[in-house]
Amino acid sequence: MTTSTVESCPDCTDGLGRSVDVPHGGFRHRMRSSPGLAQVWRIGVFVAGLLCVAARVALAVLPGPLTIPPVLLGLWIWSTEFAWAQRFFDTFKRKAREAWAHARQHPVSSAVVTIGGLLLAGVAVWAVTHLGLVDVVRDRLGL
Predict the structure, then answer these.
(1) Domain layout of the chain by residue ranges
(2) Are 111 and 117 in contact (CB under 8 A)?
(3) How far apart are CA 135 and CA 103, in angstroms?
(4) Which H, E and C letters describe the chain, residue by residue?
(5) Model confidence, pTM
(6) Rounded distance, CA 79 to CA 84, Å?
(7) pLDDT, tens digit (0-9, with 9 covering 90-100), for 43-89
(8) What is the C-alpha R_g of the chain?
(9) C-alpha–C-alpha distance, residues 88 and 79, integer Å
């Protein structure tokens, strides 16, 4: 088994202009060894993350927490290449761990809030489909 060494790559930056160390022989080293390919890769990572974050806008019309996973996925994608996104993602991970620890300390209240939220989301979906709320709103707005 060979161990990879870490070396400084002058063309590898953290997104803020500072150079970063990358494992020699790894995927990132190969991608970053060519300046043109490195820029194409970074643009691709940015666009992929942006698409996930933009999906949040499309999901904003739906009830419930459906907008959170695409944003976190986009932030995770960005955090693989950009230091500013890594800092945001680390903050979200820390807050998620704190929330999980709180939920484990207070299981009854956490279960009540979770079940209540799911019930409210179910009622909202039922109301929209059963009462035809989308059609009512369209008629009122004249669309």
Answers:
(1) 6-105, 106-143
(2) no
(3) 39
(4) CCCCCEEEEEEEECCCCCEEEEECCCHHHHHHCCHHHHHHHHHHHHHHHHHHHHHHHHHCCCCCHHHHHHHHHHHHHHHCCCHHHHHHHHHHHHHHHHHHHHHHHCHHHHHHHHHHHHHHHHHHHHHHHHCCHHHHHHHHHCC
(5) 0.54
(6) 7
(7) 898 999 999 888 888 777 766 667 778 888 998 999 888 888 889 88
(8) 22
(9) 8
